[in-house]
User: Fold these one by one.
Assistant:
Number 1:
Amino acid sequence: MSSCDCLQQLMAIAEPALCSEPPEAPPHLLALAGETGAEALLRLLRMKNGFYAFARALHVFPTCAQQEGFDLIAWNETSLWRGDYGAAAEGFLFFAENLFGDQFALRDNRVWLFDPETGVAELFADTLAGWASRILQDPETVGFATALAWQQAYGDIPPGKRLFSKIPFVLGGQ
């Protein structure tokens, strides 16, 4: 599966774009992703500027403001959530999240998965295409089965919302 194929396959199963405007992001924010990481992210957002996929288990932030939820620029402000993590969140461009609020981020051209419960980031893929490939091969990496069960029982997860355990997973929550 070529890199272009993975991103195209992800677009094919994604909901419509959250923003109809062409993607734009400030240079200081794109610099966090690395040159090839930023180029890949902008390419992805040109296909669909923000979207949901896998029964809304995967949420990719758009670059323009929305009525509900956050855009890529606001989501990466230190005055929002990431400031509480201090150095643990520095140097990342957070561009997407899974069903449980774990954050996908670009740093130095690679994709990382940041756990907001622990503040720990782990390498997820070497490229954005690798990120798409991994999710397509194993949709459970974004919580697809849980999102599908939720959707069948309660309807779509509302825009800008994620599912959280009453007891944090690191403390044994389910």
Number 2:
Amino acid sequence: MRQSILVAVLLLLTCSLGFATVPWTPEDAARARAAATGAERPAIPPARFYSGDNLADYALAAQFVASMQVSDSLSPDYGGIREGEHLLDIIQTDNTSESIWIFSRYYELTGDPSLLDELAASWEYVLSHPAYNEEGGDDIVAGYYRIYNCGWALRAQMKYLEVFDDSTYASYVGS
């Protein structure tokens, strides 16, 4: 009996390896980057180990988020942040609210104004796509995503207010 269980477990483990996701190599990432569709391609940062410089790594992360932003000012999704490198057509308010926090924190840490245009574009997107209007129902179970989005909207506005001492967007959170 014990031997049968051991054989079954080994068989299951062997089979599961066939369905496991294989880690990407740099060549795989390059192929994915080349295959990205659309006029804009995200600036996928190179795979590397932690550099030891927190600020430099944060700057790279902030620049990556900026590269995921819809930059076509004629698009109804202008300023929104794409869901992922392989989901370029999905733009959501939660990612965009997160970008407001990220860009504000970047400015707070560095004083570098290079991402302020992206920050303004993110605000433009969330003002036209309010967090409380994201998909989901009105009850707490079906509407969890709206609640999650509203939480990010609150965090974004709080960080923006803290960094810039500017209450321009306070009404967004209060709506």
Number 3:
Amino acid sequence: MGESIIIASGKDGTGKTVFAVNLAVTLAQRRAAVALVDLNLGMRGLDLALGLESSVIYDLGDVFLGVCSLRQACVADRRFEKLDLFSGPQDLRKADFTPGQIRGLFEELKRHYDYVIIDTAGGPAGTLSLAASGADRAILLVTPDQEALRNAETVNVLLRSKGIADRRLVVNKVRPEFFDEPAIPQPEAIVESLRLPLAGIIQYDANIQLSSNIGLPIVMEPGTYIADNFRRMAMGLVQPL
């Protein structure tokens, strides 16, 4: 039986989608069976970040409406032994999911995959709460700005209220040139504020986003510091607290 890991943040723009894709690819490179689930309903992006947008025919809205089976909604990334994508609907009329449906989805996927990585909308409302009702673990992504930090505190409380005990922190888009800037929250201050185990720090690099824009996750470029950093984080994240 696998486990489900939700990627959460206090606001949009923290890099959840790119992080989710690169984490999934890193695990798949180590021959783990990985399912990527896009629950950023109406604003899906995992298919674009993987370069699979033209392969998506059915989505999870179709599954829950009985239009297709879960298998038919599965899009395999053939670059890896076992990395499959399950897209959320762009049409919000198909996005009225229930917590029971989401829990059932995660349980079914965990029977077939080692890891189920879930991308959601930023902030405590909407799909984050829905996804958290069925997730085993959470990774909270925070960027070094006051809004992201304040909202991350709210999200952390929500995740705890949903019974997710294993919650870890990743500080993303860190700019070393701002380390001495008092107006910008530093990684150590973010850790102290949220009181969560620090899983990793990701330095800002435009290449990370650029690679996703062309459907080529940055960790697929071997021997780079970015790939090595993701590999270290992934190996730490898969270990239970």
Number 4:
Amino acid sequence: MIKLEMVKLDLIIKNKNKVFNLAIIFLLLYIALRIYSYGNNQQNRLLEQKDKELKKNKVIENIASLENVMGGYKKSLVKQDLSSFMNTISDIAKSSSIEIFSIKPLNEEVYEDYAKFSFAITAKAPNYHSFAGFISKVEHYKDVYFVDEVTMAPSKTGSFGDSGGNMGLDVSLKISNIFYL
């Protein structure tokens, strides 16, 4: 038995440096693994932050392009005087065979960034097609106009009467113009 213990003790003494070296290797592997994990986590966080910043940059670019578009609208949406509006609507009406009886300015509605100025118009149209053409020309005019309300009824007077019995349409509408403040 003593011989067996001596052999074990002798074996331990011979290999004590190897055991110690093996323990150091395992310790260093553990430390290296921890350093690698930390670096990998840092890299992942940086990639996530980079993605967030790229998304923010895209949003900022979109906002900048929208501001450019809004600047263009601000240049085109300028306040017009009453006579300019009336001349424009009258010219469009003449080209569409619409007879305007009155143009009445309504109250100006002021909002945070813009104001809306409306006009009540009463007119007579020979038929639905010419009235629809008038509305289309108004809404597609280079200055921005909106047709907010339309009321139509068969005409009681024969101003546009023809041999087919077409009496025309009595129309009233509200046209608005907006402009930036």
